[in-house]
Design brief:
There is one protein chain. By secondary structure, this protein is α+β, with helices and mostly antiparallel strands. 34% of the residues lie in helices and 24% in strands. The protein is built from 18 helices and 27 strands. The protein has a 5-stranded mixed β-sheet, sandwiched between helices. Strands 13-14-15-17-16 form a 5-stranded mixed barrel. Strands 18-19-20-22-21 form a 5-stranded mixed β-barrel. α2 packs parallel to α13. The longest helix is centred in the first third of the chain and has 44 residues. It is flat, with a radius of gyration of 35 Å. The protein starts with 6 loop residues before the first helix and ends in a 10-residue tail after the last strand.
Amino acid sequence: MLSEYSFHDICVTWLSNYLLHSTLIILILASLVRIFRTYLVTMRGLIWRTALVGGALTATFQTLVPAIHYGPQISLPAFLDSQPVEIGFTDRRDDSRFYRWQSTSTTIANSGPHLGSSQQFEGGLPIEQGDSSQSIRNIDRLVLPILLGILALAAVTTAFRISCDWIRLRRVELHAVPIRSGQWRQLVETLGPKIGLRRVIQLFRSSKLQCPLAAGCFRYRILLPDRIAKDLNQRQAGALVAHELAHLSKRDPFWSLISEIICGLLFFQPLNFWVRRQLRMATEFDADRTAAELLNDPVGVARTLVNLSEWMTQSTTKGQLVSPVLSVGMAGNRSLLRERVESLLDQRLQTRGISPRLRRFSIAGTVSVVILMAVASPRTVSGLTMDVSSSNAQVSGPNPTEIAPPSESATLEFAVSDAHEHKPGTESETLTNPIAVPKELHNFCGQLIGRLVSKDIEAGRFVVTVDHVSRVWRNNKADNPKSAVGKTFVVDSVFGKWLDVLLILRAGDTLEFEARHLTGDSLSFLGENLRKTAPVDLANFPQPPEGFRGFHGMIVGKVLKKNDSLGDMIIHVTRIPEVANDNAASIPTASVGKPIMIAGIYGEMLKPFQKIKVGDTVRAQINHRSPQSDHFSLDNTLETISPNQQAQQTTDKILLPEGMHGFRGILVGQLLNKDVEKGTLLFQAERAKRVWKQNRAQNLQSAKGRAIAVRGISGEFLDVLLLLNRGDRFEVEAFHNGGNHLDFVGEWLKKIAPEDSSIAEP
């Protein structure tokens, strides 16, 4: 899918999405920290790390996976070079008007007496600005090289700064003296495992340091100034080591490097620098608190912090290293000394802490914010390439298109119900015969198939007669999406690469496209699918039975058709082995013997899907997420069942619903499989006809639509089993005596007619 977009579109879309998403995520998380400042004291480090990288993650997700998006979409040209254009519709049935943002200004060469060579048309109408088209082309030609040049300069500058800091840190290590014994080494080896560090931690002392440092993203080490290594007592040394080990256990040096990279490369987001400062503050507070809890001595940690700051203030040595990018230090930020000491001595923070439940809730909330931003936040779409391509298509080439000038009496209104004469050589075809979107189709969102009536490339819209509603998305709010069939609509907001697709389409061609209704009397193109397709054949779009809509569970069936490029297939259902707990279908077995369509197969399920061939028998976990649509979605199971596996299928793999444990009574169902020699059968339960006093099953409805195994059929009832065929309905008396099967009582096994209506709910 990414290959369909130009490099320009990818870059501009990602950068604009990042700027938008990072701003929203930082503001949301900052608000949460401010509102719950007391309860989220120990979670601030995680929250600020998420704020730092969340925008990059969500922007990358929306750029690489544009199909999974349910939020609003913003076209960039509407803000870069646009003006609102009012287009009146002369439809006598509805005299309403609508507004849309038109960002394309096309220069049309014409030698007529009324129009000069620089005359422009916007949406098929004359406008006065004579240089906006050239401006757009100049922007498109210059903005990407300038943008990439600035980013490359920022990358080089950031790499240079990090390299210089690494060299400084490496130089200190080369002149440092390793500490392999004594109280410092013993403290590291004693406190390291207690704080969760299992790897070897190197310990050095150096005369080129002003404060102790914890460094290393992969190779952990602690560096101590010479004076500190000699003058601190046992209590202060333990506090210092515990603090630096806390930094290493939470990978603070690594996140210090990440924050420096993000702030250097994405410098155009000023909030990143504020988040970096908040993260540094949070890491110091967290390390202080962790050290105090580990030693159970907050006063000792506070005194050590004050002594270190006092010693650094009195130090007269110049040119000494202080907390580079690749490390963090206990006394590296003296401006927070008072707040850190007060935090350590605050009895409320020492006693309150954070419960595991609140910690899980905080983590889940932070992750939820990022996921919500990834799938439902506003998304920007670059359209500069769109404007230039459509403009060039009109003015470049050996035979430029000419449009005759309108007469003085010509109206600026756009005819809707009246047919216009098509002029040879005109790229924009007249839009004819559309109607207003009916009330039952308001707020529609889905995929349509229809025949192209006419198109207007300059305005980015077309008229189509709908033949079929192939998909209905979950965010659809239309009362009756299928009311679109047979009607003709205007579809606007076509942009970018999709204009090239629209350009090669001709009247009468069948096209498939995604659209939604926002406001007004037209549909809006979603910007994710527009392609020419074969005329509608309803055999390729099977409709599921009404009782099967909302189904969630496992099906087994034969593959009738398969489309690898679109990721869909048609399956003839033979049985329903399992129904999920959240199944909403009223009759889960209604699809048995009928075809259904599974569509939208992507991601991890593509690999097993590509191995399947037409004619294979498959087992699939499906979910009807949008009951108004005729297609089903694939969950997490898709596998081929060979004929031998199907014939040798035993009841051992069938799980009895937990709600049926302890059942005693009579069940009604449809035979799926049997083994007369073993005296077993497998059937799809419909309901319980009778339950006995000894019944202990808590949820009889859980058996509905599930495959249930019965064992122990013997004697005269083997003759009844012998006469039963697959698909026959029958009654069987059974009880649950442990395991995932029912045992036959030996008193009742009877075939019943399909039209038997004597069965009632218990």
